């Protein structure tokens, strides 16, 4: 199997993940609109702004990556065809460069979860509890997004190392 097929798999995974991120953001915005239109209670009104903000963060945070990965596949293919060994080395450096982001996401999500818990324990304010729910949604989104991304990154990195050892080719996939 040619190494570039693993790159395509990586990019397709990022595209699917970006598409789902945008879709989830849009759904959250629609949920906020439904709360605005049909919500009658104090908690329904208090959740509108936090859920809208989370939806916007998801759309704004994932749409650029979706666009970038969609456009970059052809660039990657050209770079691979011109110099496979250099492309693989560049990919190794790129993957190693964002590996620390997964740890940062876990720390950030933990802090958001703790803040949300404190808000729920220490506040009677409907608006603050709505913000707490928004914090939980952001933390959960980050963890879910990075959970799948990290799994793909580890698998891709293994293929990079194998490809460097094999000079640009990876062993045939079994089964």
Q: Label the overall shape.
A: elongated
The profile of the biggest β sheet is:
none
Number of strands: 0
| Residues in helices, as a percent range | over 70%
Distance between the termini: 13 Å
Number of domains: 1
What is the N-to-C order of secondary-structure elements (H for helix, E for strand)? HHHH
Provide a descriptive summary of the structure in words.
The longest helix has 41 residues, at 42-82. α1 runs antiparallel to α4 and α3 packs antiparallel against α4. 90% of the residues lie in helices and 0% in strands. It has 175 residues and is mainly alpha-helical. The protein has one domain (3-166).
Brief descriptors of the model:
175 residues; mainly alpha; 90% helix; elongated
